[in-house]
Amino acid sequence: MTATTLDTPPAGPGGKPPAGRGAARGHRRRGRGRIRRGALPYLLLLPALLLELLIHLVPMAVGVVMSFKELTQHYIRDWGAAPWAGLDNFEVAVDFDAPVGEALLRSFLITCAFTVLAVGLSWLLGVTAAILMQDPFRGRGLLRALFLTPYALPVYTAVITWSFMLQRDNGLVNHVLHDQLGLTGQPTFWLIGDNAFVSLVVVSVWRTWPFAFLVITAALQNIPREVYEASAIDGAGIWQQIRRITLPSLRPVNQVLVLVLFLWTFNDFNVPYILFGKSAPESADIISLHIYQSSFVTWNFGAGSAMSVLLLLFLLVVTAGYLLLTSRGRKAASA
Amino acid sequence: MRSSPTAPPRSFVWTRRIVLTLLTAFAVTPVYVMLSSSLKPLEDVTGAFQWIPSGLTVRPYLDIWDTVPLARYFLNSLIVAGAATGCSVVVAVFAAYAVSRYRFRGRRIFTVTVLSTQMFPGILFLLPLFLIFVNIGNTTGIALYGSRGGLILTYMTFTLPFSIWMLVGYLDSIPRDLDEAALVDGCGPLKALFRVVVPAAVPGIVAVAIYSFMTAWGEVLFASVMTNDVTRTLSVGLQGYATRTEVYWNQVMAASLVVSLPVVAGFLLLQRYLVAGLTAGAVK
Q: What is the CATH number of the domain that holds A176?
């Protein structure tokens, strides 16, 4: 998926050929390679292939099959015996007038809002910090280490700490907002009710922005120093350099980064699960948690699988559309 | 790196100071809370929050081992994450070598398929995988469900797509002449891989290893379904402090700190490899 969005090094012998370009050249090489090297590349790939089959591809196929079955707790011991349900599971899931479909739609919309906010803010913080720290200054190494710490912490320890900070009576957040600043009349509930959504966004951004920072920092090192020197001689100030050189040269990285952040955030299970436990408050009922609950709490695995399949279809469509748009944008830019 | 002949203007320097200060506060506050609360007696963490602890105690660090079997969870996590990382790196190096150095039929399909698994929601194959593991256990007697082996297999596969992708990028940046010369000298392809390519790819391999270990150490969803009391890992076991009627917040924070320390230390020590690996591979 993401491979197609990458700029390959020019004429690099091992470069991944982008889609549609150099197909003839690739074919010729492939033919030559096959005669010379025979089975070796396949042997090298075999372990990876077997693992992917066992853990990813076969279970996914099984999941798709399950979504067409009436798989309730009665059949869990021998799920092959569960009767076929046709499209029933899907019809229930997308019947937005009925309770199940309505809840799924709401959860989906909440997830969309959450993802847009969390990805946007994480990206913004990551890019800002990386650009501000592009030039060396005293303490830069220490700051970089501090910024990366939220990403390095195991997700459950980090989120448990946040849930402590967000406690109503003994948490830090209410201590600052209520006791010290006096902004709220009553101590606020952060982990239930509508505020739970805000909490989820904040914790998710806290956790994710260091990754954006890390990737952008790495990407900035690929911008040749001469470009800046030349523009400085032409009289460009630092703000102009950021606008004219730094930001445009980050475009290819941003395209991959935003896609990766989107997929991770949209599919995220860990943060809401640890923050709220098995049943999230309505305002923060993220889709993966919703499906988990629909499957494991109500033991209706057929319906849960159907929802997962719908989710996958949605992600496929969004990703394909995104790649199509960005690759067209890049062609237009380079033309 | 930008190098202006003149010093940056004051507006830039002040923006930098203010923004970076705010970001530091945002990033570090939870770490401070974790550290300071882990040293407080229980009555101090049940009352209103105190920035500066009134009394310090190391009791939480002694109690955490008895409240839940933390040592066992720790050992389980260490075995699972260590084995998953080791195996995943080896498998990824082989695969990335094949993809980077050979042109073969199905190469493109392989890379696209493997990478697209990254976008699967974990929830989609959690239950099927669970059923497959149970069925394999029933028919062959190989216990995957509830065992560390099953979890190791799962985690190493999770990290494979990103690892392979990053390593292919890294190997592509290593001149092909290097291993071709070794081949001409009479090395077999595998010998060329281990003698020439792997040593040149150490930063990329370290980066992949960090990523794999962190993923395995932190995963929650599959660990919560695939483990039992004996094989429970830290990610699930740590919730043991919080499901009691009274939450021992100081112990929770102490345990969190103990559990985080190895990964954070390792990550910060090795982060320059991660930046180097990303620079060479992923962000090109």
A: 1.10.3720.10
